[in-house]
Amino acid sequence: MMDSDARLVQEILRLKQARKAVILAHNYQLGEVQDIADFVGDSLELSQKAAGTDAEVIVFCGVHFMAETASILCPDKTVLLPDMHAGCPMADMITADGLREKKKEHPGATVVCYINSSAEVKAESDVCCTSANAVRLVDKLADRKEILFVPDQYLGHYVSTKTGREMILWPGFCPTHIRIKSQDIIRLRGEHPQAKVVVHPECRPEVVALADEVLSTGGIIRFAANTEVQEVIVGTELGIIHRLRKENPDKRFIPASEQAVCPRMKLITLENILWTLEEMAPEVKVPEEIRLRARTAVDRMLEVA
Ligand code: 13P
Ligand code: SF4
Fold first, then answer.
1. What distances in angstroms separate CA 226 from CA 51, 123, 124, 231, one per listed residue?
2. DSSP string covering the chain, please?
């Protein structure tokens, strides 16, 4: 007899075809969700996939700002987020009103917003970035102008050290990545002296300082595939370990911290993906006036990417 997960998967695949839908999943999703997705990637790769798809429906297995970005790029498609509570707490640390106030204090500053932000915040920004292109993007900004970087202070701090550009940083942070501590890295390096340490730039600066590589989740996937070393200490959300092990069965991946779980990412399940496809809800749709302004910031990013 077929087990219930197998039945769910079969039904999802059948409905996906009937709805002309594509399933996009972030690297932090549950293993079983990654396994049924048409594409798994980082925020930049997922926005590029959304922009290029000819599907009529996008089922976004990730958090709310990612689905919003798909809606910004594909206004004619139906974008579904299987659980509306799947929001990114860091993105919620800044509002459009808050940003407008800050801009008044720094008139003339270029506003760079991390993609982990709402569409309204993107609409108030000059250019968007992800962890995969933030350094390159800030490097390209004209000199002399002040830069206001929102909302991740740690990504902002990392970009500032790499580019030598001073930036005004919004005090946001990722509650998942701050759980990774420098003591974790020091202990694991001691236990695995041959291992390379790769971390996400949302980590605390003292953790970033101890890493061999600082990469987006997509960058971590590529690093793992190409590295000669057999052991990698991974400083990011635990969901990525599924894909790393699946794609590199001969290498060993050691999570920097077992605490680094993003509960909102884990709200997406096979059950609610099926429900979403049945109901064609909940839909994420960015209002046109906001979408057009947010699109300018996202398009500027994609040009550089
Ligand atoms: P990536 O764009 O590197 O996948 O990061 C997204 C994210 O939310 C990290 O916490
Ligand atoms: Fe947001 Fe952090 Fe979760 Fe990424 S891991 S979605 S930044 S809370």
1. 28, 38, 39, 12
2. ---HHHHHHHHHHHHHHHTTEEEEEETTS-HHHHHH-SEEE-HHHHHHHHHH---SEEEEES-HHHHHHHHHH-TTSEEE-S-TT---TTGGG--HHHHHHHHHHSTTPEEEEESSS-HHHHHT-SEEE-TTTHHHHHHHSPSSS-EEEESBHHHHHHHHHHH----EE--B--TTGGG--HHHHHHHHHH-TT-EEEE-TTS-HHHHTT-SEE--HHHHHHHHHH-S-SEEEEES-TTHHHHHHHH-TTSEEEES-TT---TTGGG--HHHHHHHHHHT-SB----HHHHHHHHHHHHHHHHH-
Instruction: State pTM to two decimals.
Output: 0.97
The model's pLDDT over 257-301, given as tens digits with 9 standing for 90+, comes to 999 999 999 999 999 999 999 999 999 999 999 999 999 999 999
Rounded distance, CA 5 to CA 11, Å? 10
Q: Which residues line ligand 2 (CB under 6 A)?
A: 63, 88-90, 116, 174-177, 202, 237, 262, 264-265
Return the ligand 1 atom nearest residue 174 CA: 10
**Amino acid letter, residue 305:** A
Minimal-distance CA residue to ligand 2 atom 3? 262
